[in-house]
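Onboarding guide, step 5: your first structure request.
Type a short instruction followed by the sequence, for example:

Predict the 3D structure of this protein.
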Amino acid sequence: MQRLAHTLLRIILVLMLSGNSATHASKASGQQFVLAVHPYLSFQELQRRYQPLADYLSKALNKQVVVRIGRDYGEHITYVGKDQVDIAYLGPAAYVRMVEKYGKKPLLARLAVNGEPVFRGYLVTSQDSGINDLKSLRGKRLAFGDPRSTMSHFVPRHMMLQAGIVVDMLEDYQFLGSHKNVALAVLSGAFDAGAVKEEVFDAFEARGLKAIATSDPFSEHLFVARSDAPEAFVVRVRNALYRLSNTQEGREILRNIKHGVTALVPVDDSDYDNLRTVLEALSEHGVE
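The system replies with structure tokens like these:
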């Protein structure tokens, strides 16, 4: 009986793992294309946001497109860099790091939010914290998101550096994995301040977040294709992404990805040069 129970348990585990195979598919197959997304929000939230886009692309390409959500930023960059996915959504810093390590990929499109293909980051605190500027972070507890996040680590870390604040001056700092985790940790009082992107600040401002510093604009998130993708595939996907803003259904798909997204627009590698400057400055101070 015990042996039978163990056998049944193994079968159940295999079935559970196979049920997740579409989401965690690591390599394109002849039956489907893989759309990879970095884990900047919860698994469930990202699945909800990107499944409509995957369904739309499935129709445009006449082949099923499945969503793959990376377990962490590093894994996502590796899968994209090694061409183990067909289409990938990347944050700006992840894109720059991926190009540094693996070389350029065919660029498909970048987000335009309210007509602008750029976004900003915020260092935030609670409205009753008494913290009003970056210099006031000295001796405080600070929350970052993922260590490889553009707006929840690299850009705010550079802003602090420019203000003369390094992490050794803080009481404590931790990486909480996502922008939303940072916002909730600050509002709960677990941390005195944190770093989030514009979208998350906008969502939590009414609940008590206050911005103490805003970054310069940086080029938005983007979509890329695998290096060996046929030119016809790249053009077809690119044009399908551009067309999203032309229909009501497409505009709903865009808003589902991120509040305020109005279009997917052309992108060039040079759009990320100002971020490269930031990352180089951080590297000189041991931040990678």
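Each response can be followed by summary notes, for example: The domain at 121-216 is CATH 3.40.190.10 (D-Maltodextrin-Binding Protein; domain 2).
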